[in-house]
Design a protein that fits this description.
The complex is a heterodimer. By secondary structure, chain A is α+β, with helices and mostly antiparallel strands. Chain A has helices at 2-16, 104-116, 126-134, 136-151; strands at 22-28, 31-40, 51-57, 68-71. Chain A has a four-stranded antiparallel sheet with strand order 1-2-3-4. In chain A, a hairpin with a 2-residue loop joins strand 1 (22-28) and strand 2. The model of chain A has no long low-confidence stretch (mean pLDDT 86). By secondary structure, chain B is an alpha+beta fold. Chain B has helices at residues 6-16, 60-69, 95-102, 124-131, 175-193, 214-223, 225-280, 286-299, 302-383, 388-393, 400-405, 413-426, and strands spanning 3-5, 49-52, 57-59, 88-90, 105-107, 118-120, 136-138, 147-149, 163-165, 172-174, 198-200, 211-213. In chain B, helix 1 (6-16) crosses helix 2, helix 8 packs across helix 9 and helix 9 packs antiparallel against helix 12. The radius of gyration of chain B is 66 Å and the shape is elongated. Residues 386-414 and 416-421 of chain B have low confidence and may be disordered. Chain A binds chain B through residues 2, 5-6, 9-10, 61, 63-65, 95, 99-101, 103, and chain B through 25-26, 40-44, 61-62, 65-66, 69-71, 80-81, 83.
Chain lengths: 154, 427
């Protein structure tokens, strides 16, 4: 399959020269399509010092279909659903926005960038987005609290 | 600059794919190449690139899969990079781009089979197709499903996969491997003798770090101090080994002795307790002291302990000797008594015997006295048998039955007389 070759190539690149604050591993050595991503909270954000585990799953049609990214670690963020799935809404991952030329590295860097700068206009958690816009201080506090509670222990 | 439609492009794919011997995407590249030569879809240097209206370039195959994977109507297909709606595809891309892609250095795909070739990517197809001797070919024998390197194929088209017995080592190997395995064996044998082979010094086990060619080894060995020391080390090793052995023996013996000592100690504790119980009645002050000393000695150093234990043993021995003496006294006493009783009994028995002897003697006397007249009568009767009746009447008291039978059977008389006469002589 053509997709496996490209995925293997991208994985090799990511393992060899990982972008800042991001480590990728296969969740299961025999399955190229599910990755575990370990992401450090970016400096200057309330998620700083937290270690977030993300799940990246690739469709068999990759790169023609976008991958999906979800947070396994609970996180207080306007663009991440506050449920068990922790699905993340990334603009570039939407089916009509996705381009086969996009790389996973770009996706992950974009996700990390989103931690530093949430996009409240594109939010999945309206309440948090509202708070982010109107009461930034309180949002920072809660996000820090959650980071300490869920993302540091592990 | 003619463009074709997407459908025409898809139709082309089937025809293009066939003449490819090698999958160019799986090649291992040796030289680094510019990222711009990389297809954004497969992330490999372009393979048969095609160009869209928006000037973005993709591999033909990648674009085909992009078109087939595109969800919406084919007429709405957008460029995978910039999403510009695209209808036409240009097959001609700048020659420069093709040349750069074909110039990337790659390894021969038969590298695992041993082909060391590195060549520009543009030459790979012809290399593998025509020149590479390591390409795996199907065996010419249609019944054999093994593969052979191209260079090893036999010119007569025989199957080389039949196992043959090696002349040197009796192993079964396939004919195609015969040459290489024989060569390998020869090489191994040669390495054992080759003067150029780098060899460690023979004293390397003693720590000589020198590694020289076999030819120079002799000169090194003459100067190597560790080789000179070699015999000494050997001797030392042997001594160490023997010492270890003896130590092990001694340890075993020591264990046995320790066991014995533990046994003795436990019996001692028991006996000392018993002794203390014994002696508590006659001398109250003595045994507690001894016991306490023995307790102390157990806690104290082993020297003290052994000293007190010998004392103990001696005292114990003394008391035991006393006991034995008492026992022997008692035994002699009993012995004397038993012998006295035996004597008494014997005397009595002897007296009885004498009595009975006397009685028997008197009885014999009486019997003789009684028999005498009969003997005399018998002698007389032998001379005159008519007188038997008179002689028979006198001793009626002693022989009743004979006297009753006497008168009727005068015939038997002499025999009876001789019988009794014989009895008389016996007594």
């Amino acid at each position: 399959m053509g997709s496996q070759k490209r995925i293997a190539k991208e994985l090799a690149e990511l393992v060899e020269s990982p972008p800042e604050g991001i480590v990728v591993k296969l969740a299961d050595e025999s399955n190229l399509y599910t990755w575990n991503v370990y992401m450090d909270g970016p400096e200057g954000s309330p998620y700083y010092n937290g270690k977030f585990i993300l799940n990246l799953s690739l469709p068999t049609e990759y790169p023609f279909k976008p991958p999906t990214v979800s947070f396994k670690t609970k996180i207080y963020h306007p663009n991440v659903t506050n449920d068990d799935k922790g699905s993340m809404c990334l603009g570039m991952l939407r089916a009509d926005e996705w381009k086969p030329s996009s790389r996973i590295q770009a996706v992950l860097q974009f996700a990390r960038q989103l931690l530093a700068e949430p996009m409240p206009d594109d939010a999945v958690e309206g309440r948090i987005a509202e708070q982010y816009k109107n009461d930034r201080k309180r949002y920072d506090e809660v996000a820090k609290e959650w980071t300490r509670k869920y993302a540091i222990a592990s | 600059m003619t463009s074709i439609t997407l459908d025409e492009l898809l139709a082309m794919e089937a025809t293009c794919d066939r003449d490819e011997v090698v999958d160019l995407r799986s090649l291992e590249t040796v030289s680094s190449y510019d990222d711009h030569l990389m297809c954004p879809i497969c992330h490999c240097p372009f393979v048969r690139p095609v160009r869209l209206q928006c000037d973005h370039v993709f591999c033909q195959k990648c674009l085909n899969s992009a078109i087939t994977a595109f969800a919406a109507n084919r007429d709405d297909f957008t460029c995978p990079t910039c999403r510009t709606p695209t209808r036409g595809v240009y097959l001609n891309v700048p020659r420069l781009l093709l040349n750069m892609c074909d110039d990337i250095k790659v390894r021969c795909p038969c590298r695992n089979e041993g082909c060391p070739e590195i060549m520009p990517r543009g030459h790979v197809q012809s290399h593998v197709d025509k020149y590479c001797g390591y390409r795996l070919m199907k065996c010419p024998d249609s019944s054999c499903n093994k593969k052979t390197r191209k260079k090893n194929l036999s010119p007569e088209g025989r199957c080389l996969h039949e196992p043959h017995r090696c002349l040197r080592c009796d192993e079964y190997i396939m004919e195609q491997d015969y040459e290489t395995s024989v060569l390998r064996k020869a090489l191994r044998e040669h390495i054992d003798t080759c003067p150029e082979v780098v060899h460690p010094c023979t004293a390397s086990k003693y720590g000589c770090p020198v590694k020289v060619k076999r030819a120079d080894l002799a000169t090194h060995e003459q100067t190597c101090p560790l080789i000179a020391m070699g015999p000494y080390f050997e001797a030392q090793n042997a001594r160490l080994d023997s010492l270890e052995l003896t130590i092990r023996h001694l340890q075993q013996r020591n264990e046995i002795f320790e066991d014995g000592i533990a046994n003795i100690r436990s019996t001692l504790v028991q006996s000392s307790r018993a002794l203390a119980d014994q002696e508590s009645s006659p001398a109250n002050s003595d045994p507690p002291r001894q016991e306490s000393s023995s307790n102390q000695s157990q806690i104290d150093s082993s020297n003290l302990y052994t000293a007190t234990t010998t004392n103990y043993l001696l005292s114990l021995h003394e008391s035991l000797r006393e006991e034995v003496g008492q026992l022997s006294h008692a035994i002699t006493d009993l012995d004397a008594r038993a012998s006295m009783a035996l004597m008494n009994e014997c005397l009595r028995l002897k007296e009885d015997m004498a009595h009975t002897n006397a009685a028997v003697g008197s009885i014999r006397m009486q019997v003789q006295w009684l028999l005498n007249p009969r003997l005399h009568q018998g002698q007389r009767a032998g001379a005159r048998p008519s007188n038997t009746n008179t002689g028979n009447g006198n001793p009626a008291s002693t022989s009743g039955p004979s006297s009753a039978a006497g008168p009727s059977t005068a015939f038997l008389r002499p025999r009876r007389l001789s019988d009794s006469g014989r009895e008389g002589t016996k007594l």
